[in-house]
Structures are given as C-alpha cells and as structure tokens.
Amino acid sequence: MEKMKLKLLYSDLKPELEMIEKELEQAVDSESLLLNDASLHLLQAGGKRIRPVFVLLAGKFGEYNIDVMKQVAVPLELIHMASLVHDDVIDDSEIRRGKPTVKSQWNNSVAMYTGDFILARALERITEVKSPRVHEILSKTLIEVCRGEIIQIEDKYKLDQNLRDYLRRIKRKTALLISSSCELGALVSGTDEKTAAHLRRFGYFIGMSFQIIDDILDFTSTDEELGKPAGSDFIQGNITLPILCARNDSAIYAMLKANLKKELTNDERLEIVSTIRNSSGIEEAKTMSERYLQKALRELSFLPKGQGVKTMRKIAFFIGKRNF
C-alpha cells in the first residue's frame, strides 16, 4: 500500500518509468541462462526505483529528452542493484524484498559474479553519454560507495563507535548515489551549474534522511512489512543510529553488548527489536532524519518553481515520513 502511495506521487512519469523498466530487463540480458535468471531474480522482485525517478525529475530543470535521460537513469539503478547483490553476500542475508536473495537462491559465487555483471552492464550503458564530467562524477561516486562498504565491514560490531562513524558510512552507502542521480540528471539535460549544485545537495540530504528512516524501520516494522527479519542490521553487526541513540541507557547498552556476535534465537531477536523500538533511540533518530529532510527542502527552495520542484517536495516528505 505504501509503495503504491509513493508511485502515485510520480505517476506523471509512469510512461518513462515503464520504458526504463524494459531497458533494465534488456540491460541484464545475456547468453547465459544462469546470469539471466539471477539478474532478473532481483530486478523482478521490485523496488522503489528512487534513483531513476530523481534522474528524470532533475532532467525537468533542463532540456528534457527521455532518450538521453534513460542513458543515466538505467545505469544508476543497475549500480544500486549490483550493490544489493554484493551486500547480501557480505551480510549473509537470506531474504530481500520478500524473496530469497541471489546468494540464497544460488550461492555466493553466483551472487558475486551476478553483481559484477550487473555493474559491468551499468558501465557499458553509461558510455552512451559522451560527457567526461558525467563519467568523472560517476567514477568518484563508485569509489566512495566501495569505501563505504569497506568502512561498514570495519565498523561491524563496534558498539562504541561515534555518530560521525555512522554518518560517514551512510553518506557513502546511500546518500552519494542518490546525490549523483540528481546531479547527473541535471547535467545531461543541460541545466546550469547553480541548479545542478542545488539538486546535488538536495539528493545528498534526502539520501541521508532516507537511510536513517530505513535504519529506524528495521526496528519499527514487522518481518512481513520488511520482507526480511526485523532487527537484521543488529544481527549482521551493523550499528545504526537507533542503536547508537538507545545505547545511552546503561541497561540497553549492557543487553546489546551481551548479544553482539551471538547467534540469536527468534525470541531473543524479537526482544532486542522490541527494546530498541520502545527506547528513546527511535525518536532521536527521527529527529536527525527530520534535520536532513529540512535541509533537502531548503535546497528545493532555490530552484525554479514548477512541477519538478512540487514532485520532489512530495517525494521528500514521503521519504521522511514513510512507514515501509
């Protein structure tokens, strides 16, 4: 239901997004039946397609041409997909979007090469864009995403990490790719530098808010709503903002410390989820997300008024208040 509400916000982009969906399927097509099956497995499981949406909306501030915009929108979604396939191997995740992960359906080797293949297809598609600036921005973004993944591994199970550690991690893990989606959409449509900069910053701030809400939902949603076990972040050793805030309670800190790196029973997992859900950590994390949301909205206030800004504002509010 919530996903349907989100799609209604950008229903005017429906024809373009249907085109991009077909392009995504074509992009992962190969002569290997195994690669086809593994790639389509995640693609057809759905997703919010936030990155292509932001590419297209950013393009509305310039000379919008869907045949040009899709050359950026498709690779950005492919890069995101590839990162999810790799993430599921690193985190040993069994379920994503309510379905078995690629590594669970097949194995780690198939998952790693599937992720590599999808990433390679993304890079192949972006070569259609003849702009060194676009390639420079995308390559730097990819480097930072990889650095973020390594930092996440290094930070696993570190209950005593500080807020800056968390923020630098989600910046690289999520915010930069959304920021680049906005900036690249602006650049390929020929917007001016000032507009592109505001869109880049909008993408960064809304990306930070998006990830914080994602981390909150890991504790406030049910297994069914998430399509995976609630509390997965903690189980995998990822210390997110609700945990960082909740640990200031000495009793909660002691409980978290005692259960880190432990193979939890289902009852133990649910008890930890309930403890965090009922702690002050959730409200404190929401406050932090709200700050980034307001910063994102401020960037929109500098842009030319029109349908693009209206839709971005609605999506930003939805992301900041979403329940899935």
TrEMBL record:
Any Pfam family from its record, for instance, is polyprenyl_synt
Q: Which PROSITE patterns match?
A: POLYPRENYL_SYNTHASE_1, POLYPRENYL_SYNTHASE_2
Gene Ontology molecular-function annotations:
heptaprenyl diphosphate synthase activity; metal ion binding
| E.C. numbers | 2.5.1.30
Q: Which InterPro entries match?
A: GerC3_HepT, Isoprenoid_synthase_dom_sf, Polyprenyl_synt, Polyprenyl_synt_CS
Q: Which cofactor does it need?
A: Mg(2+)
What reactions does this protein catalyze? 4 isopentenyl diphosphate + (2E,6E)-farnesyl diphosphate = all-trans-heptaprenyl diphosphate + 4 diphosphate
Question: What are the alphabetically sorted keywords of the record?
Answer: Magnesium, Metal-binding, Transferase
Look up the coiled coil feature and give its residue ranges.
Answer: none
According to its UniProt record, this protein's enzyme class is transferase
BP GO terms, sorted? isoprenoid biosynthetic process
PANTHER family tied to this protein: ALL TRANS-POLYPRENYL-DIPHOSPHATE SYNTHASE PDSS1, GERANYLGERANYL PYROPHOSPHATE SYNTHASE
Subunit composition and interactions: Heterodimer of component I and II.
UniProt lists the family membership as follows: Belongs to the FPP/GGPP synthase family.
What does this gene product do? Answer: Supplies heptaprenyl diphosphate, the precursor for the side chain of the isoprenoid quinone menaquinone-7 (MQ-7).
Know the name of this protein?
Answer: Heptaprenyl diphosphate synthase component 2
Source species: Planococcus versutus
Mind giving the lineage of the organism this protein is from? Bacteria, Bacillati, Bacillota, Bacilli, Bacillales
